Each structure stands twice: as C-alpha cells, then as structure tokens.
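Continuing the series of single-chain predictions for the mutant panel. This is the parent chain; the variants come on the following pages.
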Amino acid sequence: MIFVLAPDSFKESLTALEACDAMESGIKKVCPNATCIKVPMADGGEGTMRTLIAATGGTIFPQTVTGPLGNKITGEYGILGDGKTGIVELASASGLHLVPPEKRNPLLTTTYGTGELIKAALAHGINKLIIGIGGSATNDGGVGLLQALGVKFLNETGQEIGWGGGALAHIRHIDLAGLITRNTELSMEVACDVTNLLTGERGASRVYGPQKGATETMIAALDRGLEHYAAKIKEYLGKEVKEIPGAGAAGGTGAGLLAFLDANLVKGIDLVITHSGLEEKIKSADYIFTGEGSMDRQTAYGKTISGIIALAQKYNKPVIGFAGKIADHEALYQLGITALFGIIPSICTLEEALKSGRINLTNSVMAAVKLIQVTPGNKNIK
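Parent structure:
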C-alpha cells in the first residue's frame, strides 16, 4: 500500500513537514509495511522554500540582510537539490511578521533585504530563481529589492530616493546600468497567489495596505506613488504593468519583478507541484492524504488542497483530507475530495488545539487507515 502525504502547514501548530511526519506515524501504527512518500506542500507563501528544499534534497543558507525597517536581521535563501535553482521567500527578509504592530508603516518599509537574498543566491552560479512573494510588510513596488540588485532610482537632484512606498513619488530617473541580472541567462518564476492589480480599488495599497499599517491618508499616498512608478516603468522600459493581474502582489513587488527582471508570475501551488515532482508520485499512489489547519469554501480558490485534488482526479486517485477546522463540507466534496476528517477529538481552547496538533493528526490518520484496512479488497494490507 502506497500513501502520498501532501499536507500544507497547520498554521501555528505544525509545519507541512511535521504534518507529514505525524501522518506517517498514524499510518505505520496500522500498516507497518506501508510505503509513505512525504511531499510537504505550500502555495507560494511562507513555507514554500522549506517545502521545495525538503522535496529536492536542497540546502538552506542563513544570510545577514536588511529588514523591512532598515535594521539588520538574519534571513534565509535556498538552493534546490539540482544545484542550479535558487529559492527566496520575500517574507524571510521583508515579511510583516518582522515588524511589530506599532511600527508598521508601508510608507517606510523596504524590500531591500529580499534583493540581498537574491544577490546571495546568484553567487552560487544558479540559472533559475524562484521567489515566493507572500506575507510582505511593504508597499514599495519592489524598488528596495531592485536597489539591492543595482538599479538606481534617482530624484530631481540626481540623488537616490529613500526606502519605502512613500519614496516612489520622488522617482525622476531610472538607471539600469548596474542591474546585476541584466546580462545573465537567469530565468525567474514568481510564486503569486493573488491577482490584484497594481493600483486602484483592487490595487496593492487599497486591498493590503491596512494590514501593513496604512491609514486612509497613507493609502491614497501609496496609490499615487505606485501610479507614478508605473508611469516611470513605461517611460524607461516601455512596459505597461498597471493592468497585469498579480502586479499588485506584495505591495507592487510583482510589478517590479515583471518589469525589471522579466519574471514570470505563476500560481504558487502549480509551482510547488512541479518542483516537488508530486504528479509522478501520485501516479503510483493508492491514497493521497492532505490537510491544513482550516478547510472551507476558500479551499477551492487556488489553495494547496484544490491543486492536489485536481491532480489526483487526473489519475483517479482517492484524496483524504484532515483539518483542525472544517466548514462548507458540501463545497469541499463538490471540489472532489473523497473524505474529510476533523482532527480535534473534543471541545477545547484554540491554544489546546494548536498544542495537540501532532497527536490529534496522528490519531485521526490512524482511524482513517483502519477504515481503509477493512474496506473490501484491502483487508490484507499490512
């Protein structure tokens, strides 16, 4: 019996890899001879780097970089098992979790540190780069990232503009001569799980600015800054970025990567499925086990579980899902999942549920496998 274990993280309780381990433990208690193929998943946000590093046997490297407020922090980048593909998570250097709530101000926060991580990855001689851009604390259009890579954004006096979304309105000239990726054969994929435009009501500033600390006054200023930035991109690079879905991702970093680094925006889950080799592993599986902290109607909109279900259906494989919270059961079954198991065994606090995530997941998986074991045709599985 072959089980492919492909969960996302159970937020604040288990990483995706820890969830795989808990699932394997439950399976082995019932079927010691079962084969468990662990493929920890993510959708392009936090955890994507570790997921792909684990799947490919790659290496993670710590790096001192500039945090979103300009202070020095320790970030991370990775090199996948092929030795030629680098991976960077914007959240590692420029993430919202790095800024205390009382200091959040997207007029000031910068993506400079993410550019430093990219620069460090390039030093390994890679020819491909994957960037996950979820979880940002910034609204600077990726300008800080590009400054770290050698692009100069100059004001009316010929001086470099400062950091943060508030500085974009001061761009008068763009100098690309120092861009370190300009003459390389580097290809770049950007994991992006949102389709927001750069500006306007569906733009980066209006939709995501408030969670990054922006007031109504700030939102208006940030949006004007991105409008000006888009105009300068068109002037200097001849590219129109305002109407591209995903350009508003990570405070406009999507636009910056598209325009200056010729990146391709891809769905995070599709990228992870490709680089983890999940499709080939599902072909040989008898069952696919997946899960995450909460499963509901939103699961259908490009999230990890929906991608796994679609792939399993291609090969007529059953998918069993596990979650701490399950809502909209009917919608989830319509999505094509075979069975759902809630892992919390009794009434408890959120703190208790998070603390007991591993044992609860192990026990729920064990119950599911026992049921599989007595299914006609499976009675002899060991």
